[in-house]
Specification:
This protein has 193 residues and is mainly α.
């Protein structure tokens, strides 16, 4: 396939998708670096080998999975030009994204209640890594929420239809990536200790 062929609109669509995938690949490399550093650091004498992730992290995992299911359903209703249902589902995804962040904050509070702060005399390298990994992921969830807000506004302004889904598709791809990324991080942190 010759990437230089097609109308200007087709080329712009391809370019936007390619830019998103470059960003996703760079995020994969960043989180691979963080989890690799976690593994290398686990050989330290002060490493906690028996830590348990907070229950709130389990709940947040279920919340983010549900958000992906709703977003998939929103895409299906968009294909059928069911604007009201699509908007309702998108708002549901937004609410679940906020609930995910809230649940993560509750998880941080559980870690603090266990006696581990991010820094200072009550910090521990293991928990500091968990803080960093989770917070960096939350930053990307926030970026996803901003994308969702833009998609909701565009949906309310009737910008999308079954034939015009580019912005929706880009936001959806990023959101699903962030969800899959959390699943990887959760299971990595849950099983690697």
């Amino acid at each position: 396939m010759d990437l230089t062929q097609g109308t200007t609109q087709v080329k712009q669509k391809r370019a936007k998708k390619m830019m998103l995938w470059f960003g996703i690949v760079s995020l994969i490399m960043s989180f691979a670096g963080l989890t690799s550093a976690f593994i290398v650091s686990s050989s330290r004498e002060d490493w906690l080998s028996d830590f348990v992730l907070p229950n709130s992290f389990i709940y947040s995992t279920l919340i983010i999975l549900l958000s992906s299911i709703l977003l998939y359903a929103a895409k299906q209703t968009l294909k059928k030009n069911q604007a009201t249902t699509t908007t309702s589902l998108l708002i549901g995804v937004l609410v679940l994204g906020i609930a995910f962040i809230y649940s993560q904050i509750l998880g941080f509070n559980q870690i603090i209640d266990s006696g581990y702060n991010f820094t200072g005399p009550t910090s521990n390298i293991t928990m500091s890594y968990i803080y960093v990994i989770a917070v960096v992921h939350i930053v990307h969830v926030l970026a996803g929420l901003v994308c969702l807000i833009v998609v909701i506004i565009n949906q309310l302004n009737k910008k999308y239809s079954s034939e015009n889904t580019l912005g929706f598709d880009l936001a959806s791809t990023f959101w699903h990536f962030v969800d899959i990324l959390w699943l990887y991080l959760f299971f990595f942190l849950y099983f690697f200790n």
